[in-house]
Amino acid sequence: MTLSCTLCDSTEVTHFFTDKHREYVQCKQCSLVFVPAQFHLTAEQEKALYDKHENHIEDKGYQAFLSRVVSPLQTYIAPQSDGLDFGCGPGPALAHMLTGLGHTMSVYDIFYAPQTDVLTTQYDFVTCTEVIEHFHTPAKEWTILTELVKPQGTLAVMTKLVIDKDRFSNWHYKSDLTHVSFFSQTTFKFLAQRDGLSVEFFGNDVILFKKP
Ligand SMILES: [Zn+2]
Ligand SMILES: [Zn+2]
Predict the structure, then answer these.
(1) In this structure, is the dihedral angle defined by the CA atoms of residues 66, 22, 164 and 6, taken in order, positive or negative?
(2) Ligand closest to the CA atom of residue 130
(3) Most exposed of 66, 131, 174, 211 (fewest Cβ within 10 Å)?
(4) Distance, CA 91 to ligand 2 centroid (Å)?
(5) Phi, psi of 13, rounded to the nearest 5 degrees
(6) What spacing in Å lies between the alpha carbon of 7 and ligand 1's midpoint?
(7) pLDDT tens, residue by residue, 53-94
(8) How far apart, in whole angstroms, are the C-alpha atoms of residue 37 and residue 203?
(9) How far is the CA of 32 from the centre of ligand 1 (A)?
(10) Would you give the end-to-end CA distance of the chain in angstroms?
(11) What domains can you pick out in the chain, each with its CATH number?
C-alpha cells in the first residue's frame, strides 16, 4: 500500500522521525508531518485522554492562553459577528470569551458537542484552537473548515508549528498521542495559496486566514 499525504494526497512522502511510540512521515509537497494510520488511537482511547484535559471556562491562565488568538481575531472581524468554535472540547472557554465580547457563538465538537446542524450554515468566522493537530484526515476537515466560512470571513487556527527536525526530536507536542498532524508555516502557506486565502501568522502558534 502506498502511503499518501493525509492533507494534500501527494504520494511524495518520506520518513521524518521515529520515537519510542510512533513513526512520523513528511510530505514533500505541503510539508505536513503526520503519523501513519496504524499508530492512531481509537476514538475511545482519544476520548478517555480528552476527558482528562481540564480547561475551565473561568480559568484565568487558560483565558490568557486563548487571548493570544482572540486579540488578533478581533482586528479581523466586525463587532457582533457570528462565529463557530470547531472542536470546542469539554468546556467551551473560547466561545464564552467571544460571547462576552459581543459575538454570537455556536460550538461543535465530535465528542462533546456533536450536533451537526451547526455545520450546515456559514459563519463570519470559525475558530479551531488546539484541534487541527488531532485530525486523522486533515484534508477532509480542512475542506469542512473553509466551507464553514462566509466570503470575506476569517478562519482562526491555533496549533504549535513544526520548526525543523532537530527541534522536532525533543518536542513535547508530539508526546501527546492524540496529536497526529503537525503543521508548519510552509504547510499553511501551501493551503492558503492553493485555496486562494490570505494568511497571516501571529506569535508562535496563531494563524489567521481570510477568504476573498
Ligand atoms: Zn501533503
Ligand atoms: Zn492538542
Answers:
(1) negative
(2) 2
(3) 211
(4) 14
(5) -120, 145
(6) 5
(7) 765 556 778 888 899 999 999 999 999 999 999 999 888 889
(8) 31
(9) 6
(10) 38
(11) 13-210 (3.40.50.150)
